DNA sequence: TATAAGTTTAACCAAATGGTTAAATATGCC
DNA sequence: GGCATATTTAACCATTTGGTTAAACTTATA
């Protein structure tokens, strides 16, 4: 395995992501980010003038992965149910790799001071799902429902376990590996759920 | 309408709940809580020695409402699907009255420093649903599924819109009243979903 | 009226924290 | 070598914040 040398800027962004995601904006310390990046606080401010500026950089990239842009996938010519199955697989995979992502994004979105950072809204996701749904509905291939409500349910079912992870670990007396296995099973379970909901 | 005079302690707890729920632990200021309660900081510390102690009091009450204890409802002798319908109605009603509850509880649960506050775990909810489910499953009245996965889905579907509320308001160009109406519709939609999932 | 508890005011403290600065040192590049 | 940029060190500053204290004032009650 080749060791790729990260530039200082990259090291900082990586460290900032880690700390912000773990501790939230208020809970994060510039000193802590500097420590994780293996540099000192002065250099941190040398690269990113303020905590706010640094946060914005990190957050921008993250919010877009949380509200996934499904463009290509949803424009494929396959049944709507299959698109949703693909969504579930992709999204759960993302969450398994970024278990802190949901709480981080939802906190920021709900933070008055940080709402200015939210530039690119996930209108696309909703629009694409709705359009793709109605095409299929007219063909009589899916049951009648409100696509907006459906996408909320879908995302909710995917993210909830990651938000409540500490509680679930305790409830099931499980460790991280067991949790991940439970989420793998969950992918199949959710696919079954949406099939039942969507199939007329 | 009779004006009921709140005791100072009650005023403080009410104010603390409001501020903690809105700003989170880190984001909350003792001065702010005192202001909302209409008293001064000295008196605040006179009643509750520290921020931690005050937070614990508020959080204790809240976590139990977030993971609802369904004891009586689930022991009723009615079909499992009906129990779930009752759950949805009750839980969505609670969330409509406490829209900040989910983010507050989930943040606290995920906060290392605050994990000591979590004493009473919601094992009951999971146990009751599971037991109630298996009784009904043996009678062939519900489809086969993993009750733990199901309860996660149920809670996720209920809470997600409240967590993503700022985004949804923006996406649908809606105000608070419209959002509440959307959630009222959602109750019916979710009932349909679970019926489809559970009915063999 | 005397006593105790509740409440206010205002000043104060110590620690944490975001951010700055200046000088020294290292590094790469012409 | 000499120059610019990157990096470190370390001290420093202003502000915020949780928490304390002491003295004065209010209120109810015995």
Give structural notes.
Two copies of one chain form a homodimer. The first copy, chain A, is mainly alpha-helical. Chain A has two domains: 8-49, Homeodomain-like (Arc Repressor Mutant, subunit A, Orthogonal Bundle); 62-198. Chain A has helices at 8-27, 30-37, 41-47, 51-66, 71-75, 80-97, 101-109, 123-138, 147-163, 165-171, 176-198. The model of chain A has no long low-confidence stretch (mean pLDDT 89). At the A-B interface, helix 1, helix 7, helix 9, helix 10 and helix 11 of A face helix 1, helix 7, helix 9, helix 10 and helix 11 of B. The structure holds a DNA duplex (30 and 30 nucleotides). Chains A, B: One of its GO terms (molecular function) is DNA binding. Chains A, B: Keywords: DNA-binding. Chains A, B: InterPro entries: Homeodomain-like_sf, HTH-type_TetR-like_transc_reg, HTH_TetR. Chains A, B: Residues 29-48 bind DNA.
Keywords for this structure?
homodimer, 200 residues, mainly alpha, Arc Repressor Mutant, subunit A, 0% strand, DNA-binding
Strands, helices and their partners?
2 copies of one chain form a homodimer.
Chain A: H1 8-27, H2 30-37, H3 41-47, H4 51-66, H5 71-75, H6 80-97, H7 101-109, H8 123-138, H9 147-163, H10 165-171, H11 176-198
Helix pairs in contact in A: 1-2, 1-4, 1-7, 4-7, 6-9, 6-11, 9-11
Chain A binds a DNA duplex (30 and 30 nucleotides) through helix 3.
